[in-house]
Amino acid sequence: MENINKFSFYRIWLLIKRNATMNMKTWIIGIGALNGLVIIVSLLQPHDAGVTQQINEIAYAWLIYIFIGGYIITSKTYNELHTPASGQFFLTLPATNGEKLLAHWFLTSVLFLLVANIALFTGLFFSSMLAAIIYGSQIDLFNPFSTANIRLMGFYMVSQSPFLLGAIYFRKNNFLKTLLCVFAVVMLISIWTAFTVWLFFDVTDFTMFIDTVNQGFDGLNINLLPTAAKVIYWGVVTPFFLTVSYFALKEREI
Length: 254
Prior knowledge:
The protein is mainly α and about 250 residues long. The chain is built from ten helices and no strands. It is globular, with a radius of gyration of 23 Å.
């Protein structure tokens, strides 16, 4: 028991392999469907002979569906926990709650993005090859390491974390319930911000509010609110939801 209570990267790796094996069939079907749709839709786009396809623009449009698919996969990642028979087995796995959480998070964030980008690159490559053969257009390749794509991947990793908490907390309809909660929180924050601006600053234009706040920091050459929002979003949101998810998982064990 003492060894189990010690953090182990090897156990995390074993949990990742276990979870990946259990969901491999679903992932393969999803990847096949994505690649098929990418090829079909790309070939239906107008092509000019000798002109390069705008592969990156097509890819960014498809990333929306990848994001939605990732959120749904994340929301279902703890379905095993909510089934009485398999839930008892999951809770008694020889690993700590932190290891179980990190394994699920790594699988549904880092590994999912890796697989999704490989699938998208492959689908766009074949679509570009077929377009070159059929229409005579030039071959273009999707660059998953572009600055825009890396930023989108970072956005996914942050925005995915609430759905991991929802996967643990909600027993049914995890995706829809989490989406509803996220929408409700965003609306409450927007209403609270608008009310605060109106009450304390007597301005109705949010741009005027930002200018008013920044005027109080004459020595700082920064835009205070956007900078604070970026720090909170990139540095606080994911650790916060992972921490809450850990305690939610620990509570389920009790």
